[in-house]
Design goal:
With 347 residues, the protein is mostly helical. The protein is 41% helix and 3% strand.
């Protein structure tokens, strides 16, 4: 009976449209061991795209730290090297990469069907303003994190707009605000044991005003944790998820030609997930879509930008002087051709 329940949960997850609304994650594959070959039954659920990008970026960042002559760009198609041989379950950064898609940690545990049902319910609320019981519902800051991150007020966790018609600069400001908050946690400026009411950051005041007693630790690890000391790495993983998603065509339309304001390319439109078709969206979030994107440049691709973020955290670089300016001129650069958000070609 238990085996049948697990099988049913997996079917529910597989048929929910996609395993995430971002580059694919897969908390099942490599959970207890690493270096499983590509493909197989687990990748029928979702590919380990975020995990692969993150591992490739960590490899590149580590090489730059240990070999001063390694000044070239990260290889987008370099084979990833796992950081934790015991499996992703023990890798706090990968836990953070998963968190944006699964902030209630259903996929990390055995509640796969719950994750899928919540996604369907969230989609229904976003489109009809009514939940699965037919009751009028608003996805505000009192709602479950999974709902908020995919269809509510926290879609910046995927470098996306909350709705069609939002100004690009508004979406970018929300996204950078989250990255600033997570960077504070990742570098130790924000105490993981502190409560939201005590955290001196606009994200805590704005998005968690209804949860003043939550600790940062609870936010990033509401059910499963490797301990308080690992929360900075979880926050780093969340940052990586955001910047990686910004390079998915389903999340944002980019132009890679240089302009005076954006010499490394720019975002032309942030997309909103609400009116997108999950299946069309998912096609752009596959491993092949990432590895074969001919538009990526040496300076503007998810591996390179992720490696830079990792290096900033390792060096405890100053946010205002170093990190935010880098983000504004690379992953999140905007120019005069930026337009309001929409579904793009994924409706």
């Amino acid at each position: 009976m238990l085996r049948s329940c697990y099988a049913l949960a997996l079917v529910a997850l597989i048929t929910s449209g996609s395993a995430s609304d971002a580059y694919g994650i897969n908390p099942l594959k490599n959970k207890y061991h690493r270096h499983a070959s590509k493909g197989g039954i687990w990748e029928r659920v979702s590919e380990t795209v975020h995990e692969d990008i993150t591992d490739a970026a960590r490899r590149c960042a580590a090489l730059r730290r240990t070999d001063p002559s390694s000044t070239g760009p990260c290889a987008v198609d370099a084979p990833p090297v796992a950081q934790e041989i015991r499996g992703n379950k023990w890798d706090a950064v990968i836990r953070g990469v998963w968190w944006n898609d699964d902030p209630n940690q259903h996929l990390f545990g055995v509640h796969y069907a719950t994750w899928a049902v919540w996604m369907r319910d969230a989609k229904g609320i976003a489109k009809t303003k009514r939940n699965w019981l037919g009751r009028q519902t608003v996805l505000d800051n009192t709602y479950r994190m999974q709902y908020r991150s995919h269809y509510g007020d926290m879609q910046f966790l995927h470098a996306m707009a909350n709705a069609d018609g939002e100004d690009a600069s508004t979406v970018r400001d929300r996204t950078i605000g989250w990255l600033r908050f997570a960077y504070g946690v990742a570098t130790g400026r924000i105490d993981p044991d502190g409560t939201m009411s005590d955290v001196d950051d606009p994200v805590a005041r704005t998005f968690f005003a209804a949860q003043p007693g939550w600790t940062v630790n609870h936010l990033f690890a509401p059910k499963y944790t490797l301990g308080l000391a690992t929360i900075p790495d979880v926050a780093l993983g969340s940052m990586l998820h955001v910047v990686q998603d910004s390079f998915s065509d389903a999340h944002a339309q980019r132009a890679y030609d240089a302009t005076a304001s954006c010499p490394l390319g720019r975002i032309v439109e942030f997309h909103s997930y609400t009116q997108q078709d999950p299946d069309r969206h998912g096609v752009a979030d596959t491993r092949s879509a990432w590895r074969t994107n001919a538009a990526f440049t040496a300076s503007a691709n998810p591996v390179e930008v992720s490696a830079r973020i990792i290096s900033f955290v390792h060096a405890r670089a100053d946010w205002i002087r170093d990190v935010e300016p880098y983000l504004r001129r690379t992953a999140l650069c905007l120019d005069t051709d930026a337009r309001p958000s929409g579904p793009g070609p994924y409706a």
